[in-house]
Amino acid sequence: MSFTDSTYFADFGVDVTLAGASVRGIFDDAYGESFGGLVAGSGPMLRLPSSVAVTSGATLVHGSTTYSVVGIEPDGTGMTVLRLEKQ
How far, in Å, are 25, 34, 35 from residue 8 at the CA level? Predict the structure, then answer.
């Protein structure tokens, strides 16, 4: 099974609104810290197939939270990670 197969997103994905369109991706907002706990926070991101067109600055809505796309990182395997910033 390729990670870009629809079954992967069906099993693990969530529906979000990206630039006004409904898409399904893997949302993550994991907590992280650096420098022995001196710097901490979360790094929200959405993993989705690279076939989904997106531009930096696009609006993404997950649940009741709105994010702005601040980074687009295709990984060369057909998946792209969108780095998000809470609005």
Answer: 9, 31, 35
For the chain, the domains span: 6-86
Please name the CATH architecture into which domain 6-86 falls. Beta Barrel (2.40)
Structure confidence by residue, pLDDT tens digits, 45-63: 999 999 999 999 999 999 9
Pairing, β 65-74 against β 59-62: antiparallel
Q: How many CA atoms lie within 13 A of 21 on its CB side?
A: 8
Over residues 29-38, the pLDDT tens digits come to 977 666 676 7
Dihedral, CA of residue 23, residue 51, residue 30 and residue 8, to nearest 10:
80
Residue 35 φ/ψ, nearest 5 degrees: 55, 50
